[in-house]
Fold this sequence. Notes:
Shape: globular
Order of helices and strands: HHHHHHHHHHHHHHHHHHH
Amino acid sequence: MSKEKxxxxxxxxxxxxxxxxxxxxPMMLSMLLIMLYNLADSIWVAGLGADALAAIGFITPLFMxxxxxxxxxxxxxxxxxxxxxxxxxxxxxxxxxxxxxxxxVIVSFIFTILIEGFMVPILQFMGAGETIGYAxxxxxxxxxxxxxxxxxxxxxxxxxxxxxxxxxxIAIAVTAILNIILDPIFIYVMNFGISGAAWATVxxxxxxxxxxxxxxxxxxxLFLDLSPKNFEYQTGLVLDTLQVAIPSTLENIVFSALAxxxxxxxxxxxxxxxxxxxxxxxxxxxxxxIPLIGLGTALLxxxxxxxxxxxxxxxxxxxxxxxxxxxxxxxxxxxxxFMFSKEIAAMFSYTSAxxxxxxxxxxxxxxxxxxxxxxxxxxxxxxxxxxxGKGVYSLAITLLRSLILESVFAYIFCFIFGLGVTGIYxxxxxxxxxGGTIGYIWAKFFIHKFKEICIRKYEPKKDNQQ
Length: 466
């Protein structure tokens, strides 16, 4: 075992605070790069006009489902592998990684057929209307190459599960930088329009798959050994992975459903232009959430290792520490968004076709800056549940927070209180905070029960061994 691989394992099994920071920082960089190329997509597509930007808004919920497939299986693999590593069962850790890769192939094939076959009615149901031409041009390309995104998400999660954030970050950096470069070339220089943005995304994502596959099967220097000889089919491993993967994927579908609901409210309240405004402003909000996503992803690995090792102290520390750091960062980023909302909105108004959107985007960012403050305690509680293999608990929190409370309060504030589009934004923020608070209380109760189990079942054994 190399020194670097040994240090990675020592890190994720040691001090949870140090592990979270060391895992989170590279993940934050990775997410920043991902958000930058998503933002680049929006900025370059905005030059084609409001209809093209709105089309991206309609496709984004479906694209989140696509990303969720890879991330869901990846989260399941990350949790399961981390728990095996925490328990010292490295043979099963290898086998769990190979099962996740097999699942990515099967799931990609099934969902590609389903999404491609029902694309038109889905977009019509979402109310794409006059933007459906742009939406079709973009979606058929993106969803036609579903395997690339699912496979990439699973491999990245495998690297994270053993604490190897450096190479997981490098792979994502390759994707993001290449996409940022290719976007203007494909959209404007080659005159592919919105289809060019889709092709740039597919090509750049393919490169990360090639790079990670080389490290796993070419260079062969992971802590895990994913050689085919180590594969031994076990239904139990598939089910354990799916216990986190299915709820995690459904969470992304929940986010997509919420986006569809919010887009529908916006269309009713102010037309498709409001969808374009919301799409642009949420890109900024998503960028500000990068540190929280990084912390949450780190927490998933650290909590999985702690749970596998029956270490309730590390689990409690990791959960509380990630929330404290999350709130501290959110306060800073929320303030920046609020103070510089006009300057940020100007990025989307560099052509005559999109200049009129700038004041509306600035107003949306001002209200949605509060959303960042409403997220940390709920998100970290959900990620902790994923890490310990309780994906259904995580899904329940997301269902309550996003699909139920955010949409209900958005409707109440907009249509019953008569606050219009601003009411929709405020409802999303308030619903997120209330749902997250309920999730936080649930997580604290779970950790307390886990402590009681560990004291009753495992600490007596340690005393007898001594």
